[in-house]
């Protein structure tokens, strides 16, 4: 940030960790809130760390105006060293002393949205990872934990609601139309979990009684116009509280638990102790404005932030390299919660497939690119750049593998031991793994603990090569598994991982072979498993449930994959077989010379027809199977990428599916279009998902044959829809197909929802992600930049248009004339000037530029070099582009 923009960025290394020279036991903060000049009085009780040699106290600060410093009530000397306040003349010994610091800051000019800032007349904070230093001088590191008392004072008419962490202990009026509120948090916490909110907000309140009989008050604060959109978030919060107490015995530990929603927020949400601050995207929902995806995301994110109350707050990270200690573990917990909320085994499988799809399309490319890093990174220049899918989603897979290796009950034992040992502490990923192993001493995890911890230390996606050999004379089937992992930046060679491979065998008629289901723990470069009593060569079903985050390589024939697609009892592998069949055909067409014709053969199309018409499969599962692999996922399978060729191939595949299965899509639509009153449950959402896919296919076919029937029906459904899911799917089908009715529907959609910020984000995103036809995507996005409703400084709006285009529209971004890269360059630099976090995430869109074919590669490199050469570039963006250009 500002203090780091001069010269080379400071590199922070995990190996350099040292305990703090001082501890802060308690913090008493008083805020006089004013948008232009907020006064912050910080009284701390500080003591020397006896385990560290005596040295000055160095406190972090950024963009603060320092007014005074007192030690035990007396003035003291100090000096500034960069962004740090350095105090040398401190009391000797280890007895606590009082340190008082008075500063001012300007929240209304805080465009970074880190620290204390103002959004639409309301004060908010965001302190993770290093935002608290923008509020007051402090030891801004997660291993310094203190109790907090906070007094907020402000104009009562402008800021009637004053919130902070913990419990409200006092409030009242002051002279001059002002008032105050005093909050105490009984739990020690690091400063990154501090929060305050002040503004004109209304509240949905819900008293509850926990399983243990204690009373609690749940509250969700929003703007008045949004109060009717908070019911689902409240229901999700109550469900999460009940689930955590039931599944893991973890109760709510505060009298009051609050959620506040804001539309200006860099992240999705923040788990500040007792006062969660959320992006409105993950709080607000009603059937008229939110889709099934929104409802599911709200349930998941509300649960995620609540689960942090224990896994992140009660036990936190020793340092930021341990970020996955809280994030990977909590993502795993919210995934388990969502699966349990889904209910049926099929719905649980759909959730698992959706999670794996994110991992493969986002994390696997990250693991193969210039920003590849271990789940526990070794170094960083800007910690905000490491809130990544590797830390979160791959970190969750590491935790999931632990549960696989110790069992569901064993995992609960391990988590219980973890809290018994470390409640109230700041610890490491190793501490968590050790607790899991110690609670399950006879498990494969305990037997291979040191090797298993390589998942935290080594970057890259392991590859598992499976080869089977049937011996008809002996009646045996021998399965050999070999593992390897490609080099990643700073790690040219990798030691073997511990990889749990869940598996089973089927015969060629699709019957499961008894006694063949097992968990193979691959912990060496190679292992062999022998199955006896085989009458014929079986069909192996490997990596069931995606039991490890690896790339599985095998020699299964199309016929064997068709057997798995039609009959495997494991839903994940059933879906995966369909994906592999589609991927093979896509890659063959991409690699072939000449124009793209019809990549799909009759066998594949008949298999898809059979899935679509299958009487026993859930609609949500059918929709997943019939959705082709993404262009970005196809690109990752190639050494050299021509984005336009991939786009042409995938579009040809979609058109084939649309035409060949036309009557089946009509059947699917008619059978699933009516669902009665809106309910966001998994069954109803699955029916709507399949209906939406059918409309997309029918409109796509109509575009080719000029038949107006289905675009007309889709437009009518758009107008008549009683919920946002149906309305948005119909709109998307028209826009994606490029039908002229799509433009009319877009205009009507805007007219109807122009006052709904989150709905307008969908409107922008749909147009940004619409397929590129003859180079029309970039001009469309450039025109939308000038739209009166576009606001570059709002993170949600910037992401909806610019990030959607750069990250999710490959054919639009990767133009042969380089114009897409120039657009990316200009937007990265423009956003970096006021919000480096958002800019750095946008900069990641060209991570994989080296895989591009010419002329794309040279043009992309030139754009990245132009960003890197810009003076005044933030540390956030500089780290991303420097790593992208590094040899």
TrEMBL record:
Pfam family, one: Peptidase_M1_N
Catalyzed reaction equations: Release of an N-terminal amino acid, Xaa-|-Yaa- from a peptide, amide or arylamide. Xaa is preferably Ala, but may be most amino acids including Pro (slow action). When a terminal hydrophobic residue is followed by a prolyl residue, the two may be released as an intact Xaa-Pro dipeptide
Domain of life: Bacteria
UniProt entry keywords in alphabetical sequence: Aminopeptidase, Hydrolase, Metal-binding, Metalloprotease, Protease, Zinc
Domain Peptidase M1 alanyl aminopeptidase Ig-like fold: 460-554
Record-linked InterPro entries: Aminopeptidase_N-like_N, Aminopeptidase_N-like_N_sf, PepN_Ig-like_sf, Peptidase_M1, Peptidase_M1_dom, Peptidase_M1_pepN, Peptidase_M1_pepN_C, Peptidase_M1_pepN_C_sf
Enzyme Commission numbers on file: 3.4.11.2
Cofactor: Zn(2+)
Family that this chain belongs to: Belongs to the peptidase M1 family.
Protein name from the UniProt record: Aminopeptidase N
Gene field: pepN
């Amino acid at each position: 940030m500002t203090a780091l923009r001069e010269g080379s960025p400071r590199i922070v290394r995990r190996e350099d960790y040292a305990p703090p020279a001082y501890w802060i036991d308690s913090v008493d903060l008083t805020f006089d809130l004013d948008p232009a000049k907020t006064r912050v009085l910080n009284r701390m009780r500080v003591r020397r760390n006896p385990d560290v040699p005596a040295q000055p106290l160095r406190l972090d600060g950024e963009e603060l105006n320092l007014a005074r410093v007192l030690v035990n009530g007396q003035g003291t000397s100090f000096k500034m060293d960069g962004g740090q306040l350095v105090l040398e003349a401190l009391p000797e010994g280890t007895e606590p002393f009082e340190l008082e610091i008075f500063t001012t800051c300007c929240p209304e000019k805080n465009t970074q949205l880190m620290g204390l800032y103002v959004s639409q007349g309301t004060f908010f904070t965001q302190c993770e990872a290093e935002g608290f230093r923008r509020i007051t001088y402090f030891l801004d590191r997660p291993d310094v934990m203190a109790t907090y008392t906070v007094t907020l004072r402000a104009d009562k008419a402008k800021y009637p609601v004053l919130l902070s962490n913990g419990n409200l202990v006092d409030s009242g009026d002051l002279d001059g139309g002002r008032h105050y509120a005093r909050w105490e948090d009984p739990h020690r916490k690091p400063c990154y979990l501090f929060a305050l909110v002040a503004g004109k907000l209304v509240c949905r309140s819900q008293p509850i009684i926990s399983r243990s009989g204690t009373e609690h008050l749940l509250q969700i604060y929003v703007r008045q116009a949004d109060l009717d959109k908070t019911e689902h978030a409240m229901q999700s919060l109550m469900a999460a509280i009940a689930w955590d107490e039931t599944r893991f015995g973890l109760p709510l530990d505060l009298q009051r638990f609050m959620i506040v929603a804001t539309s200006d927020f860099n992240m999705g949400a923040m788990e500040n102790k007792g006062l969660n601050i959320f992006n409105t995207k993950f709080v607000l929902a009603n059937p008229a404005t939110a889709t099934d995806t929104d409802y599911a995301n709200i349930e998941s994110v509300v649960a995620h932030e609540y689960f942090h109350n224990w896994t992140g707050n009660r036990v936190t990270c020793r340092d930021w390299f341990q970020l996955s200690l809280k994030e990977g573990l909590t993502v795993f917990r919210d995934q388990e919660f969502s699966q349990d909320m889904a209910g049926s085994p099929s719905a649980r499988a759909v959730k698992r497939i959706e999670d794996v799809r994110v991992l493969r399309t986002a994390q696997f490319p990250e693991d193969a690119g210039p920003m590849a890093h271990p789940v526990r990174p070794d170094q960083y220049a800007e910690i905000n750049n490491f809130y990544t899918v590797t830390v979160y989603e791959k970190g969750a897979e590491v935790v999931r593998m632990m549960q696989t290796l110790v069992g569901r009950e064993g995992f609960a034992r391990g988590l219980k031991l973890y809290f018994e040992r470390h409640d109230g502490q700041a610890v490491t990923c190793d501490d968590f793994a050790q607790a899991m192993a110690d609670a399950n001493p006879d498990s494969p995890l305990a037997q291979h603990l040191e090797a298993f911890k390589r998942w935290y230390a080594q970057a890259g996606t392991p590859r598992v090569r499976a080869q089977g050999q049937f011996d008809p004379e002996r009646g045996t089937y021998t399965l050999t598994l070999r593992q390897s992992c490609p080099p990643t930046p700073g790690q040219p060679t990798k030691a073997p991982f511990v990889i749990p491979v869940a598996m089973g065998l089927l015969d060629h008629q699709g019957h499961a072979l008894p006694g063949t289901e097992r968990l193979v723990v691959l912990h060496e470069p190679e292992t062999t498993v022998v199955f006896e009593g085989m009458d014929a060569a079986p069909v192996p079903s490997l990596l069931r449930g995606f039991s490890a985050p690896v790339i599985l390589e095998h020699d299964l024939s199309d016929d064997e994959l068709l057997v798995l697609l039609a009959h495997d009892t494991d839903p994940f592998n059933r879906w995966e077989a369909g994906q592999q069949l589609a991927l093979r055909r896509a890659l063959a067409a991409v690699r072939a010379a000449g124009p793209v014709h019809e990549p799909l053969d009759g066998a594949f199309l008949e298999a898809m027809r059979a899935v679509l018409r299958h009487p026993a499969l859930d609609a949500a599962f059918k929709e997943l199977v019939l959705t082709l692999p993404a262009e970005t996922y196809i690109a990752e399978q190639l050494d050299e990428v021509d984005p336009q060729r991939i786009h042409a191939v995938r579009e040809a595949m979609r058109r084939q599916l649309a035409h060949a299965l036309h009557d089946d899509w009509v059947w699917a639509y008619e059978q699933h279009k009516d669902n009665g009153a809106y309910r966001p449950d998994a069954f109803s959402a699955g029916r709507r998902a399949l209906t939406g896919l059918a409309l997309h296919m029918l409109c796509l076919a109509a575009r080719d044959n000029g038949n107006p029937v289905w675009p007309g029906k889709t437009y009518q459904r758009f107008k008549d829809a009683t919920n946002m899911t149906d309305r948005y799917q119909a709109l998307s089908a028209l826009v994606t197909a490029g039908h002229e009715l799509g433009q009319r529907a877009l205009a009507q959609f805007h007219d109807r929802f122009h006052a709904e910020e989150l709905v307008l984000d969908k409107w922008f995103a749909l147009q940004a992600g619409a397929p590129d036809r003859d180079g029309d995507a970039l001009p469309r996005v450039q025109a939308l930049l000038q739209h009166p409703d576009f606001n570059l400084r709002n993170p949600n709006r910037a992401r909806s248009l610019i990030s959607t285009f750069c990250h999710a529209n490959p054919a639009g971004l990767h133009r042969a004339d380089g114009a897409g890269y120039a657009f990316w360059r200009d937007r990265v630099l423009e956003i970096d000037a006021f919000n480096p976090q958002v800019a750095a995430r946008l900069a990641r869109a060209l991570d994989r530029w080296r895989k591009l074919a010419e002329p794309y590669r040279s043009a992309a490199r030139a754009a990245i070099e132009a960003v890197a050469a810009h003076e005044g570039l933030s540390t956030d963006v500089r780290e991303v582009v420097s790593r992208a250009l590094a040899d």
